[in-house]
Every structure is written in structure tokens, then in C-alpha cells.
Design brief:
The complex is a heterodimer. By secondary structure, chain A is of the alpha/beta class. In chain A, 34% of the residues lie in helices and 21% in strands. Chain A has two domains: 124 residues, Rossmann fold (3-Layer(aba) Sandwich); 151 residues, Succinyl-CoA synthetase domains (Rossmann fold). Chain A has a seven-stranded mixed β-sheet with strand order 3-4-2-1-5-6-7, with helices on both faces. In chain A, strand 3 and strand 4 form a beta hairpin. The longest helix of chain A is centred in the first third of the chain and has 13 residues. The relative contact order of chain A is 0.12. Chain B is an alpha+beta fold. Chain B folds into three domains: 72 residues, 2-Layer Sandwich (Dna Ligase, domain 1); 133 residues, 2-Layer Sandwich (D-amino Acid Aminotransferase, Chain A, domain 1); 154 residues, 3-Layer(aba) Sandwich (Rossmann fold). Helix content of chain B is 40%, strand content 24%. In chain B, strands 7, 8, 9, 10, 11 and 12 form a six-stranded antiparallel β-sheet that branches. Chain B has a four-stranded antiparallel β-sheet with strand order 1-6-2-3, with helices on one face. A four-stranded parallel β-sheet of chain B has the order 14-16-17-18, with helices on both faces. In chain B, a hairpin with a 4-residue loop joins strand 10 and strand 11. Classes of the chains: A alpha/beta, B alpha+beta. Chains A and B meet through helix 4 and helix 5 of A and helix 4 and helix 9 of B.
Chain lengths: 290, 388
Amino acid sequence: MSVLVDDDSRVIVQGITGGEGKFHTEQMIEYGTNVVAGAVPGKGGQEVAGVPVYDTVAEAAEEENADTSVVFVPPAFAGDACFEALGVDALDLVVTITEGIPTQDVSRVYRRLQETDAYLIGPNCPGVITPGEAKLGILPGNIFEAGRVGLVSRSGTLTYQVVDSLTQRGIGQSTAIGIGGDPIIGTSFVEALALFEQDSKTDAVVMCGEIGGEDEEEAAAYIDEYMTTPVAGFIAGRTAPPGKRMGHAGAIVSGSGTGTAQSKIDALESAGVPVGDTPEEVVDNVEDLL
Amino acid sequence: MRLHEYQAKQVFADAGIPTPASGLAATVDEAVAAAEEIGYPVAIKAQVHVGGRGKAGGIKLVEDETEAREAAEDILGMDLKGYTVERVLVEEAVDFVNELYVGVTMDRGEGKPVAMVSTRGGVNIEEVAEEDPDAIAREHIDPAFGMHPYQARKVVYDAGVDREIASDVASILTTLYQLWDDRDGSDAEINPLMVTGDDEVIAADAVFNVDEDALFRQPELQEMEEEGEFAENELERKADEYGFDYVRLSGNVGIIGNGAGLVMTTLDLVDHYGGTPANFLDVGGGAKADRIANALDMVFSDENVDSVVFNIFGGITRGDEVAKGINQALEQFDEIPKPVVVRLAGTNWEEGMEILNEDLVTVEKTLEDAVQRAVEYADDVADEEVKQ
């Protein structure tokens, strides 16, 4: 078993006819991902990158026996696209790459998600990859290498930075999950860590958090109480001033001082998680943990 | 995006929330005329996006024309924490006996909206939340159903609001939630909601922050944003024009990168190696050469910047485009204005290194080395300046 995605995943791409959707479908297929269908309203019957396109997600899932969907739909329509995917019981994983979905739309999607058994990764995330098997999203496959370290992160390029260092030091990855940088996301650190904890192919986990919200603090409490798999941490945004949104909609220290890097670092360290000052130090810590 | 107080009040008033009589003024004469029309006493309030306006001298209560003229002269054109005051709101002074707090925001941890009421209005509510969280009653709203009337009543009763005004406050909260929901608010707040001696309630201040990602479907609010954009931070305005995520800080090492988490990490590393970051600038995903050149232009035009670190880890951003953009930006100068350190990794970084004109920049292979080099350069420039 790997986490969330593997060789057997049968993948639909919502928004496959758009520029990004088409490009990344080709990249996913090239990486070895089993992309079985596209879904775009009004584009049923077409073919993109050798993949049949259907008008609805339900039809695509039924005809092609899919279990996963990746959403590349523009922000104004992405909330609806998530609802459509979550409405199909056969899909147990929805990965939403789209950045800039209105927060109230995401709030409603999140509400709907609670009624289903599916996982939603994102929105505003780079996706999920199980190196050597399959990737969902926009992560550059060439920097990853199959191995036994799991990775969960709120930021795409920071993930690449850490993965690149791991790979260069000969440490491969089991699965990397980009959970996304928005204030409301489908899968939290805690849920992602729980998946790694249960995975027999993951020996250690790297968790890259950032300022804003309390997800990292909750993750620290979870690690302390439930995890036997060791975790190495990193927190971005130590120098961020309060009240300023640092790129990600979710990366903001509120005026009352919640969501600071220090509170997250303290929480993780008191849960026994070594927190690196630099990405290289994170990799040092992983070496120590293995 | 944050509406100005006068804009938020207009939105609230249009929805039926009672607000004090007021007029907007850009000159002293306009302010005095507005005051005369409303009748003294009036409050003269600076319209800038700065917290703690009152303490900083941006709000004055005046009793007559002489005082009004004096206050308007003081406030118009004044510098409030880096923002120049270009307009004041002249507003009827409300004679109140009590101040409440009413607000709606998104609870990101719960993923759903929360309505809040407190009898401790008129002060910084975040401080109240810190010191005495129980002083704020909260009710989470299921976004699938919206706020039920009983929820508005419940949170008002829970807060301990006087029975005489409870139903009026509940009705204002219901309207506020509806506005928040219809207009894609991120935060909607009335602080204080003043209670007068004869049990009237009136919104003496108004905050309405709009989700920027939803502005495409809020054309009226988008217009307000454009109207409200006057004389704020020059660099941040330029960043808006270029469409960058940019935050200006106080240091001297300029920072450009792709992806919020990695740019934040670069800032942190500058600090870690003894430097001070001048800015956060995220060029976003998939930036082409022009955009990269614009980013360099942005950071060069910040006079505080002594050196620049350019860190790109390509996923959908390609190293060759980045290199072209850097060349394009730097080749126009006879002399490079500030030393630039470049680190390229990820997609097409090798192609990028071939294109990059290494006579114009310093290249480092790792993020850590690039940051240390930029910090050294900035220190050298600062030392030079001290000598001169």
C-alpha cells in the first residue's frame, strides 16, 4: 500500500480541455499515471492526449471505472467542479489544483465533504505523488525518487526544495502530499499524518508548515498522542509581520498573534518533532531519524 | 480587500443597518460644510486603512466650526503610519450609554462562518478575545443553510445583551450575516454598535473586508476598491499593477522567488544568516521573461534594497524563461544598480544557466549559499554607505 495514489489509481481530469489541464494531463501520463478520462461540460466525445472526454464526471467515472479526479477548472467554476466530483460515490479521492477559489465556495465544498467518505486534497495545491508509480497534479516528477520518507506540505515550491535535497542525499520518498495554502482545505496535516502513520512503506515523515491558522499546532498534538512514525518539521514565515498576507491566502498571522511561526515551532518541538532552521537542516534531521 | 469606513457604512446603510448621518470630505471647506449640515457635535475621521486611528490622532470630536476647521486641517494630509490622509468622514456624534460588538467572519479551523456578539464593544476586540474569550459569544453557521433566525437570537442572548435591545441587535446581526454571505465578505464587523439612552442601536464604525478571490462576481465592490485606491504605498500599488504578491518590509535584502512557502523560507534564511529582508515578492507559477523583468524592476525601485536574491525552484516555472527575464532586466543598465544573486533549480534549470548572462549576476547552486552571498553583498553596501 502507498498513500492515496498508486499504479492502480484510475484518474479523471476535470478541465482537461483547458491549457493547464491539457499540459499537465500529458505530464501525468508521461510520468506513468493512469489517466482514463477527461470531464468537461459540452466537450463530451472529444479526445485529449489520447484520453476520452465526457460531459459529466458521473459518466466519465462509470464508463472508465475511475476512482480519482484531478480538478484543473478555473476558480469561478472550481467549487461546482468539486461538488460534482464529490457527488460521485465511486471517486474516493479528489485533488483540486485550482488557486483562487472564493473562500465561501470552499466552505460549502468542505461542508459537503463531511458527508462523504472521499478525501479532498487542496484546493490551491501542487497535488500528490507516489514516486515511480503515479502523480496527480503539477509536481515536477523528475526531482522525486521512490523511497520510504513521506512528505506533507502547505506549499508547492517549498516541497520541491525539500524533496530535491532529500533526493540528492539519496533519501527517496514514499508519497508527497501538497495539502494547499488556502485558509480552508479538504485534508489537514492531521489527516495526512494519519495516512502515513498507517502506511507500512513510510518510515519517517517530513511536515512543512507555514504561518496562519492552527493546523500545525493540531498536528503537533496528534503526533504527540498517536504517532509512532518519526516526524521532522519545518515552518516557513518566521520573519512575516502580523496582518500581512504572505502570498497564500491562508498564510497570515492575525493581529492578535495567533498563527505565528514561533507557536507552531514550539508546539512541534514539545511533541518531540525536530524543527529545522533551514531546509538542509530538515534533511539532516531526517537522516538522524531514519 | 478592505473597504474604507465610509464605503462599508454605505453598504451597511443600504442594507438597512442604522448608521449615523455623515458626509465625505476631501478639503477643509467640504468638511466644515458637512459638519454644518449634520449639526454639531461631529466626529472627523481619517479614511485610511490603519488600525488605532483614534490613538494616532486621526479621529477628533468637535463642537463648533472653529474646532471643525482646525481638526480637518490637522487630519487632512497627515501621515498615519505611512498612509497620507486624503479624505475624512464627517459624522454625527452619537450620544451613547453602551457599546457592543457584532461581527461575522470565517472560522478557518472549522471551515465555516461564525457570528459573534459581545457587550465589550468600542475596544480592540482581538485584545478582548485574548484576555477574556468568554466575553465574546459565538455561534457557528452551517454554510449549507445560512444563519437561522434562532441562531442570531441565541448568540445575542448568550452575550448578555439587554433584553430591551436584543431583538434589534439580532436583526442587525441577521442583516450583517446576509451581507457577508451575499457580498463574499471575509470579515464584517460593527465595533462599536452604539446603544443610546432611548434604546436605539446605531453602527458607529463599520468594517467590511471582501474576499479578493471573489471580486470577479462583486462588480460594485470592485468599483469601490478602485475608488478607494488613493495615495497608499507606492511600491505596493506598483505590485498590484504587475499582479505580484508583494509585501514591503524594512530591511535591505531584496527577495524574489516563486511560490509563497519558498519565498517565506528565503526571507527566513536571510534573517537566519544575519541579514534583514526588504520584501516578500512571489512571482507566482509559470512566470514568463517579462514578468521576471518586472519583478526585478519592482525590487530595484525600493530605495532600501542593497542587494537582491533571486531564488526560483521551477515546477511550472521554467528556468530558461527566468534567465531570459533576468538578462532582459539587467542588460538595459550600463551599470547594475544593485548586486543580484541568482539560484535556479527545477524545470529547465540547465537551459536557464546556459542563457543567463553571468557577467551581470552572481550564481549560486544552493538556496543557502545564495542567501548568504546576498546578505554579504548587502552588508558591503551598507558599510560603504557608513564610510561615506
